[in-house]
Amino acid sequence: MLKIDSVSKTFHAGTVNEVRALQDVSLSIEDGCFTGIIGTNGSGKSTLLNAVAGTFTPDAGSIHLAGHDITRWPEYKRAALIGRVFQDPFAGTAPDMSIAENIAIAMKRGQHRSFGFAVTRAFKDDVADRVRTLKMGLEDRLDNPIGTLSGGQRQALTLLMAVWTRPKLLLLDEHTAALDPKSAAKVAELTKIIIAREKLTALMVTHSMQQAVDLPDRIIMMHRGAIVEDYQDERKQRVRVPDLMATFDRVQKRELFDESVAGMLKAQYC
Amino acid sequence: MSLVIGAFTMGLILSLLSLGMFISFRMIRFTDITVDGSITLGASISALMIVEGYSPWLAMLVSTLGGALAGSVTGILYTRFKIQEILSGILMMTALYSINLRVMGKSNIPLLDVTTISTGMEGFFEKITATASKVDILGWQVPIGDLAVFMTSAMIAIFVAVLLCGFLFTHAGTALRAAGSNPQMVRAQGVNNNTMIVFSLAMANGLVALAGSLLAQYQGFADVQMGIGMMVWGLASIIIGEALVGKAGIGLTIAGVILGTILFRLLIAIALRWGLNPNDLKLVTAFFVFAALVAPAWFGMLSRKISGGLNYVKN
Question: What angle do CA B45, B219, B165 make, to 5 degrees?
């Protein structure tokens, strides 16, 4: 279970560029729940994901995962519990190393890295079996440098690597946004299949309302560094893209209203 | 012929320097200037220990460890104290200058009339060839001493190369290569990047110090100035080696780096024979590395211009 408790983060504090990226955010995700996060640009959805991944330490609050207090853990240590797929399809793999070698690195996540050979024959058979499930024909190219593959193929492999050791949590950061439509659909489908098959707990940031409706079991909507909506269970079952759009408009109108009231009061009293 | 054997021996000894720099420059992609100091450190530790009567093999081991320590300090300056890459190396290199003087107690230790691995091997070879002082190779009379040193350095270089190549294919070795190739990826896969950098620099400078140890024993002295410009020499050797094997796997590239170092020493020997002023050697080397670094981009530009011209003609 992932438990985010009153997490706040301000970037560039005390300067003109001050950004209050997360404001007292609390969120609990049950084991086996696939949660999507949507929100406008700068709403803090990626920041929330990075707070869990450990890219930075929050100013306040705590993060617990699978019974560990990981708030102060460095990024590499959290990787023992967390699998990640990035927006940039080239970010998750080492381009000049082979497919098999890349997967060998993922296989040892959270374990001691010994002086035994990384790619053995038995390991390659195992890799071929699992890579075959991607249905991309990559099982015959295990010795090719991963840099020779397309963005979609690399992202699919990154996804496979992220779930190789069955992590306590899978983080997906707009992982289909930088792909062409066909590859994006393929990777989205794989995501759904793999998460269901491995019964993974997952947190996915997405720009696409359709994806948020189609893939996850639960949708969180963020705005200005805070959670403004939470669709669970039956509400999630019923929600459609137009509903989400309407909620977005409502949230933004409320904010416009707040701002105009503030402006009026300011004009009267200052 | 003794010139050729000399260049080969020198090349094999310095190939350890190139292999070390191959780890730091090419694998972890860290521009490490510690090299100029750590090669001298290896030479000074060995010279001191050998003069004090220790076994030359033990001296080589201690030198390697000393170099590894120096490399890890550079790594810690960079990772722990967030000092820039180049500056970390410069600080350590400068500190090593004084450390080397301290180790030796003076600026130069001659290794005459002491047992080094060179003299040890010479004695061994003389025994097995029944006191012949020269052997006949393809019609050339080669002094047995030169041959012994050549064989020893070849054995050590091959041993280190095989070990290094094997290591790079282990779990730890693949993680190290990935750390150089994509730091974000290895962090997400649970590898501590900083540990990898410190470990790589320790390994790299350990090998460099081992090269220094052998160099001192081969030349017959250790000098506090001997490290100056070594980094550029190593870089030149790596560039030649990579040009020799082209885009190849790790094993072939390692072999290429060794061959590149030997070829570089041969070129230098020939250039000196033809009357190149030894004082100009470092200038020439620096120019060569500059040319090797810009040539690919320049050729690329040239070929684009030509193909662009062709397109223009077609249109």
Answer: 70
pLDDT by residue, tens only, chain A of 270 residues: 899 999 999 999 888 888 889 999 999 999 999 999 999 888 899 999 999 999 999 999 999 999 999 999 999 999 999 999 999 999 999 999 999 999 999 999 988 898 999 999 999 999 999 999 998 999 999 999 999 999 999 999 999 999 999 999 999 999 999 999 999 999 999 999 999 999 999 999 998 889 999 999 999 999 989 999 899 988 888 888 899 888 888 888 877 777 777 777 777 776
CA distances from B39 to A13, B240, B295 (A): 46, 21, 29
A215 neighbors A204 (Cβ within 8 angstroms): yes
DSSP state letter for A139: G
Cβ pair B40, B227 in contact under 8 A? yes
CA distances for A66 relative to A29, A164, B283, angstroms: 11, 18, 61
Class of domain A2-239: alpha beta
Cβ proximity of A33 and A220 under 8 Å: no
In 10 A of CB B124, how many CB atoms?
A: 14
Domain boundaries, chain B: 2-276, 281-315
The ipTM assigned to this model is: 0.87
- What the block records as the tokens of B4 is 């050729």
Kindly identify which residue of chain A lies nearest to residue B189, measuring between CA atoms. Answer: A109
Please give the biggest Cα pair distance in chain B: 79
The third-level CATH classification (topology) of the domain covering B2-276 is ABC transporter involved in vitamin B12 uptake, BtuC (1.10.3470)
Q: Give the helix/strand (H/E) hosting A154.
A: helix A151-163
Whether B132 and B102 have beta carbons less than 8 Å apart is answered as no
Which among B174, B190, B192 has the least Cβ separation from residue A97?
B174
**Number of CB atoms found within 10 A of residue A190's CB:** 20
Residue A89's CB: how many other CB atoms inside 10 A?
A: 25
Of B170, B182, B187, the CB nearest to A115: B170
Residue B228: both structure tokens together: 């100056």
Task: Please say whether the beta carbons of B56 and B220 come within 8 A.
Answer: no
The separation between the first and the last C-alpha atoms of chain A, rounded to the nearest angstrom, is 49
DSSP string, chain B: -HHHHHHHHHHHHHHHHHHHHIIIIIIS-----THHHHHHHHHHHHHHHHHTT--HHHHHHHHHHHHHHHHHHHHHHHHTS---HHHHHHHHHHHHHHHHHHHHSSSEEE--SS--HHHHHHHHHHHHTTT-SEEEETTEEEEHHHHHHHHHHHHHHHHHHHHHHHHHTBHHHHHHHHHHH-HHHHHHTT--HHHHHHHHHHHHHHHHHHHHHHHHHHHTEEETTTTTTHHHHHHHHHHHHHHHH-S--HHHHHHHHHHHHHHHHHHHHHHHHTT--GGGHHHHHHHHHHHHHHHHHHHHHHHHHHHHHHHHHH-
Contact (CB<8Å) A102/B178: yes
Q: Does B191 touch chain A (CB under 8 A)?
A: yes
Q: Which residues of A touch B198 (CB under 8 A)?
A: none
B176 in contact with A, Cβ within 8 Å: no
Report domain extents, chain A: 2-239
